[in-house]
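Table 4 source record.
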Amino acid sequence: MAGVLAVLALLVLVRAILAMGYLTVRFAGEVDPLSRAVSYYVFVEQGAGVFTGVLVTLALATVAILVGMIQLRIRPGARVVALVATWCVALVLCAAFPTDDSPTVETAAGWVHQFAGASLFITLPFAGFGLAHSLRAYPAWVEAAPLLRRLSAVAAVLALGYLATRLPDLLFWWRFPEVLDWRAVSGLVQRSLFAAELALLLVLAVHLFRTAVHTHRDTRRTGTPDAGHATAHDTAGAPTGEGP
């Protein structure tokens, strides 16, 4: 079952990458990828459905990854689960409540979108840090932990950078010096952040698939995961120093 969930997540993530690439190239004239947020694709004909679909299916892929890890007896911890759940809810809220097609927030839906969008760029990097710490205790996942930590760090830095580019809009009552007004590259920073978060999920999905395949192979061969092979790949659910 974990392998099926991993495949589902991988398919969704690949589709999301292709869809975001399509939106960026196809509608570059309507939504400037350097200065406009990805949320504005909802105002482009034929772009709204694609973008909304990406958000909703990403939430499903994230749930599939987390459930698959739990099925392999990974214990991510309550904090990580809460952060991942917040990320998924925020994705759905961003899909259900579009941003306002204006420089400032004008509607209740726009405010919901802004707060949900802000949580998107915070929760997943912190969940990645938490997972990287927890996975060090699982031999089958040790090699994934450093990469998760690096991707989480990149996403966190980009999240701070994106916040910096949005400050002139958020603090609209203060006239920002031109040298501090980075709105011209806010879209690029946001897309880079989104790409880092997709990469983080992709690493988890790929490693989930590999671990599930190894576990299934050894279970079919011996009836239980092979004791010697398990120390490298298949003690997915047993932290170092514990039994399965």
